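tool_call: predict_structure(chain=1)
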Amino acid sequence: MKIIGHRGAKGLAAENTLASFKRALEYQVDGIELDVHLTKDGVLVCSHDPVLFAFAKPFAIAEHTYDDLLRNFPDLPTLESAIETVNRRVPMVIEVKETTPAQPVIECIQGFLSKGWQLQDFSFCSFSQWQLVELRKAFPDAELIPNEDWSSVKACWRARQLHSKRISMNQKWLWRGYLRAMHNRGWKVSSYTINDVNQFKKWQPYLYSVYTDYPDRFVKPKD
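tool_result:
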């Protein structure tokens, strides 16, 4: 089973920052997940939420330029800087948020492919089927992962539409019998977010991967 650092290593450093990605890389993770939003001036930044807060004041990412945001959030990285930081040491799972258009992500990845990165260095997930359809058109061989909170039926339908066997589900709605059945049918199920070691051990034979805030609990530090 693969261990994916959730937003880098969210439990060990501020999520979706270069420090968090570097922290995850200190351990033998199989990949790093991050989220992307688009600023007013077209810069892809790593953030789970569309609105950031500084001193209780909201800053909607889509309504501010990257330079504006940096004045209040100096640790806010671009997707480009995140990719350069990870630098192909492990694959990256890029979650395209529902309000983030796919085209800027496509153009960013195409730029790295022209520099020697491989498509296998990236996979893409989203709660938005439209975003994943656009990514499939641009990258026919890319690994695409539909995110679903609770409906496995919808998750599988979406995956079939994308010609994918990967789905990602909220761990709150999963159980051992379901995971065993999906595994036996050839589905690759990922679960978010698992931080409990005992839960991990129970589901380990049947999950393809887990997203965790604490990679230090599941894999060893690198030498």
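agent: The chain is about 30% helix and 25% strand. Proceeding to next step.
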